[in-house]
């Protein structure tokens, strides 16, 4: 095997490994949640949304807000809460962010120097290899969604859920479905109200 074909094979293996690693990360977001120690979510029956949601900027309701509102409403009503625009007991706020990240990965591979002193052995028997470093740059997008549930009367956060994960191309092409799925993942951590 000559140096060029070995190097090409090695790059292919490294690239395939990187794609497998990214696809493994992209299977689902990392979700975490926290709850106020004195909060009993069974004490609440109604929910609404903050007047100014964190996903709205510029004085209008964004598509992100519309998608998140629909998904949160579905999850809250499925848990027995009723939507109310007038004096809701719980207020929901949310935020989302997408940022570009870059990883630089270095691998070491064995290779033959094409014109080294031992080049004359090439093709007949294997000399000892020398080692070279190959650097690969991987760029990807990380998405984060936060959902806050606030006691409206006390103006106190009673529960929060956060999801963070690598965004797939499909997530960017179909944001409504992607947001509905991530909100469902976050609400999997929502505590069952003690009634």
From TrEMBL:
Q: Which domain of life is it from?
A: Bacteria
User: In what residue span(s) does the DUF4136 domain sit?
Assistant: 31-191
Claim: Signal is one of the keywords in the record = yes
Residues crossing the lipid bilayer are: none
> What InterPro entries is this protein classified in?
DUF4136 (IPR025411)
Q: Which residues form the signal peptide?
A: 1-26
Q: Which Pfam families match?
A: DUF4136 (PF13590)
Q: Which UniProt keywords apply?
A: Signal
The name of this protein is DUF4136 domain-containing protein
Task: Give the organism the record lists.
Answer: Alishewanella maricola
